Each structure stands twice: as C-alpha cells, then as structure tokens.
Amino acid sequence: MQKIVSSVTAARGFKALGINCGIKKRNKDLGLIFSEYPAICAAFFTTNALTSSHIQLDKIHLKKSPHIKAIVVNSANANCCTGKMGFYDSLSMAKETAKVLKIKPEEVIVASTGIIGQRLPIEKIKKAILKFPLFLHKRGAGDFAHSILTTDTRTKEIAISLKIAGKTVKIGGVAKGVGMVNPLMATTLMFITTDAAINRVALKKAGKLAIAKSLNMITVDGDMSPNDSLFIIANSLAQNKIIKPQGAEFKKFSDALSYVCNQLAKLLIKDGEGATKFVVIKVKGAAFQKQARKIASTIANSLLFKTMIYGGDPNWGRIVSSAGSADKNLNIKKLDIYVGHKKIFSGGKPTKTDKRILRKMFLKREIEIILDLKSGRQQAVKYTCDLSPEYVRINSKYRI
Amino acid sequence: MQKIVSSVTAARGFKALGINCGIKKRNKDLGLIFSEYPAICAAFFTTNALTSSHIQLDKIHLKKSPHIKAIVVNSANANCCTGKMGFYDSLSMAKETAKVLKIKPEEVIVASTGIIGQRLPIEKIKKAILKFPLFLHKRGAGDFAHSILTTDTRTKEIAISLKIAGKTVKIGGVAKGVGMVNPLMATTLMFITTDAAINRVALKKAGKLAIAKSLNMITVDGDMSPNDSLFIIANSLAQNKIIKPQGAEFKKFSDALSYVCNQLAKLLIKDGEGATKFVVIKVKGAAFQKQARKIASTIANSLLFKTMIYGGDPNWGRIVSSAGSADKNLNIKKLDIYVGHKKIFSGGKPTKTDKRILRKMFLKREIEIILDLKSGRQQAVKYTCDLSPEYVRINSKYRI
Fold first, then answer.
1. Which of A90, A270, A386, B122 gives A277 a disulfide partner, CB atoms 3.0 to 4.6 angstroms apart?
2. Of B243, B270, B297, which closes a domain?
3. Which residues span the domain enclosing B349?
4. What CATH number corresponds to the domain at position A115?
5. DSSP for A335-379, written as a single string
6. Do A397 and B311 touch (CB under 8 A)?
7. Is A187 a catalytic residue?
8. Which residue has the higher pLDDT, B334 or A46?
C-alpha cells in the first residue's frame, strides 16, 4: 500500500471538476465527480431526524438504479428545511447534470453543505452545470476538493494504491468539515472513489468497518449535521477478481479503505473550526465497549477539557471529573491516566510529576491521553480538537 | 409569600460569616452558616463517580447525627482527587469548627469548591477557624455569599417569608456557580436555610421537587462537577405545626422552596462563565417527558446554538438540526418553533418572518424559544446561556 497523488481521480475512469456558480462570491462552490463506467455505490447518511433534501433524493436514486455515474455537490447552502421546493431543487440539479453528461437522472447523486433554511439559487446552478463538459478533467480532483469547502481552511485529500490478487487497485478520498461534527454512522461530506471490482455487500461491509475506524471516532463540537453523508463508489476498472465480503483480499481492501477514511478523519479534526491542537483520547481496560466509548466521547466533548487544551493548562482534574460524569460507577481509585505516555494520575490522586514537565506536555500541538480503567479488555479511541475563541467567532456570525 | 432581605440568615436562629483564610489572595474564601438550634438537613449530591472529600465526609456525618448545626465552606480549592489526606483535611475542618462552636464534629457539614487535585492549606484554614466566634453574625449572610464564590462575578442570594398555618415561615438561599454546570440531581453549591418545622421525609420530598424545578433545568457548559451539593436545613424555630409530606401546608412550603431554588438557578445562569444572554428553551407537545427533556437539553448544550445566541445570529436552522439530532424519530414537519412568541418555523420550513424582526429577536438579552412537537402533552424547560470568547478565556487558564 502506498500513497499516490490526486485523490478522487486517482483511480481509473474517474474525472472531476470544481467551479463557481455564484452561491459563494468568488470561490468554487459547485463540484462534480464522474465515473465513465457504471459504479456501485455504498452510501451512509446522518441519523439526524432532520435530513437535507439531497439525502431524501439520493435514497430514491440509490433504490432506483443499481449503479451511479456522477456525484454533483454544492457548498455554502445545505438545501435543508427548504420544504418541497428544496426537494425539487435537488431534483433539478440531478436532472440538469444527467442531461449534460448524457446519463440517466437516477445515475446522479446530489450533495449539499452550508447554511440551513435558504433556497438554492437553482437557476444559477443550472446555468453553471451547462459548463460541466468543458471543465471535467482527469486532473480535476483538486478543484473538486476546493468546491466542497465551507469554513474549512484547507482541502482534505488522499489517495493510495495497493495490489489485490496481482492487480493494482487505487482508492482516493476527499472530505470537508469542520463544524457540526459529531458522528453517529457518518459525518460531514466524504467521497471515496475506487477502481476495485467488489460486490455490493462487500463494499457496504468495508464502508461500515471504515466508518467505525474514522468518522465515528471524531468530534469537533458534539453537534450533528442534517447533511452528513459518505459515498464510496467503485467502478471495477482495476479488473481484479471480484472482492467478496470475506477472505484475505477483502481484508486487504477493507484495511486500505479504513486507512483512507481514518486519514481524512484526522485531517478533518486538525482543521476543526478554530482548532489549534489535535488530541487523541484512548480509553482502555474497560469492562465493556460502551463504557470505553462513553468515557472517551464525554471527555472529547467536554468544554472544560477543550478550553484547557486550548490554553495548555494542565488542569487534569477535568479529565477525571469528565470520566466520572460519563460513568457513575467508575472506580476512580483503579484509574490510571497517562499524558504523552507519562503516568500523571493513579490511585485516586496525582502522581508526583514535575510541574514544568506537566505544563510542557499540555503545550504540545498533538497530545495523546490514555485512560486505563484496569477493569477489562475493551477500548475506544476518539480524536478531538481544542476549543478556541476563534470557534466562537466563526459560529457567532455564520449567517449574518 | 414575599421577598425579604438577607438570604441564609433571614430565618430565625441562623447566623453566618465569610472571611479570608489565605486560599485566595485577598477575597473571602471561608464561610460558615450556623444554626443555634439543631436543624434537620436534606442533602443532595452530584452523581459523578468522582466525588470530593467533603461529600464523602458529609455522607458519614449525616448518617451519624440526626441533625446538624453548622456548614463550613471553602472556595478556590475543591479538595477533590486528593486521596486519603484530602479526606483528613475535610475532617480537620469539621473538627476544628466543632471545637470553636462547642458542638459535635458530626453536627458539622463541610463543602469545598474550586480547583481539583490540590491539597487544602489546612493549617491556614484551622487558624482562620479560630476567628469564627468573632465574626459570626445575624447579618453575616452577605459575607458568606461572597466567601463561596469562584469565577462568579456576583453573589446569588434570596429570601422569602410566607404564612404556614398562621405562623410566619422564612426560607433563605445562597448559591455559587458558574462553570461545570450541568446537573443530574444537583449542581454547584447551594445552601438553603429555613425556620420551618417540617419532618425529615417532607423536607427531602420538597427538596426533590425543588431540584426538578431549578437545578435540573439549567446548563452552562454540560460539564458535571464532582463537588455539586445542595443542603436544605430546617431548625423549626417558626413553631408552626410540623409539615408532613402531603396536604395544603406541604404544598405551600414546597412551592415556596421551589421558588427560592428556581430564582437561584436563574441567577446562576445569568452569571454563567462569560454569559451575556439568558435563554429559556421550552419543549412542549411531546409524547414523553424523556423526549421533551432530551430535546431541550441537547439544544441548551449545543455549541453551535450557544455561539449563535452570543452573536445574535438568527441561524434558527441550528435549533431544528439540534432537535433532530436529539430524537431521530422526531417529525420535523409537525414541529412549530416560536421565538419571543412569534412563529418562525412550521411545516418543515421557515415562516415568512421579516429578516430585521428575526434579527432583533435574537439580539435581546433574554430570549425564550418554544418548540411545539404537537405529538402529546408532555413538556420540559431548560435555562441556558450563550457561549462567548470570555468563557474560553476563563477556562483556558483556570489553573495557570
């Protein structure tokens, strides 16, 4: 497995583009991924009861058509809480895209991200779609990566290649964050393309495993978006022997996909709104998976923890308190806490750690915190970022 | 029922004091409430698995003695995660206080609030306790209110008097906040004194009802403290017929106690760390209490909601999204949202509200938001505040 360039167009048969259609003033806000060959698609959506129009339409298209050929995405407008007309706008985007690409509307997936509750400027979008054939290009991945950004400060892209049964298979991915990030199943917009030949059940299974090792591990602010979507599309042009949902070849593909999603998830957290630090929280020695996950997630979302990380304040009591609030039966006396592999808490009280060393550990840009409950063999890992005044600034005037 | 002055010393037989013992540089950091007559005590503690030494000691004292006479409190140090020695420090505080007041150690309740993980300067505290008889005074409630503050910008006090079976009964209360506020059972430190004659079961029952209508309704940051405690002490000096856990007199007392706790809870939120706005979130028309509570609490703790309130940004989509994330079966199409009694969302989309009016509503210092699920008769109310850069500033360098 090795890293290669160009993300979503790295695999054979994929082209992409990103242009401005006028939702944003100047920056790219409309993107397309196109597969020349019919591709199967595994899609994962938010579990929010509020879903954007694009999700409602995609569910219909994915039922109607056994494969897809295009994904069209707009940023800066979520097309959510926009009623029936919002749904028709999504449908128009799909239809217009299908027309210029000479494919069927149900072969088009639509995605939106941005502000909730405003209609899309659909006429502007339709006009821009007419230009798609002009811009679509094998080297268009970078433009696409730009076109899906909202408050992101940089693009998130990765591609890898690996050998499966003697054939070279490529997997490329792109994602956008960076607020309203707290997944259950999926989060943000993430698009993965691969030329692997794989059956539908295997792709879905590999996708689920990848989510568990990536999107379900991260949190920026504990808020869940109504637009969260992950699409994994595979067009089989690598001509490898079809991957089935078990065996060594599945494991190889699944691990590679997990790696791609995990890398993108890390990039999302590192570019979290206002984030200045990247934190890994590992809870091990838990009696149950649920216990480990609850504790890791409570700490990762604690405002007091996140602000202390921002300030580099070694106020470790907040870690203990947060763990205790997550699980009222937690045995604090058994708990060991490590920061940067140094034990700082044991037997219900702090270890004798030099104050300057403690402070230094919390001043690092990447911090790993391990909680060992010493009560079992289960563990969970969360990636999170700090909470800075910049997060407040960004989100206090998102709409005005 | 009418408001009177002087909070915890308003009721007959109570004195108080607040002095500096040297944990803080200059401000008051050690306080005492004293009842001349034995008082019964209803105590409610945090459900955090991590509990401070004072809670461990109080539980023993409350079992040992049927009544109490004194509550001694220090601020700026939580005496939590301090191991066995921390427990002995709490015990020393109780013993020393008992000695100077000529009462039994188990008649003393101890409470601490402040930073986690540092030993108390117990010698300084013991020295200061010797001065208690000098400062103890019927007019000491204000000093006590000051002595329990941490990042609070002002004291929180209230007292009322009411008639119960022809006798005048007084209830006074004082509380401190103002971060790590997200209750389950109780939160912060809150002390209530009353001269009512009431039996133990009735006092506990009235306390539980009061918590439901006050401390369990509020959130500042979703973090739960290991020191949260509410103490209600009643010394029966009003000489009313003993209040039992039912009937009209119980209802009168219970309502008055709920009122006192509710007023203090509001004061806590208004003085939330960095808070500039006070928000009431009411979820009504829910099928189940649990549904209403979950939705109200998810919105009240949403960072995106709290930052938008700070900025006065009418980004109402975040309210809908937050509600949808709290209950994945929520019927968004049935949901009505009112801000300041104006309907702004209905039938899955925004109503036609003038943009300037909408903006004005979100610029107010006190904002009421009502979500009507139109699915039943259950409701829940939460008080919350906004999230400002000041919250981040305070909490990023609490310890350094």
1. A386
2. B270
3. 278-396
4. 3.60.70.12
5. -EEEETTEEEEETTEE----HHHHHHHHHSSEEEEEEE--S-SEE
6. yes
7. yes
8. B334
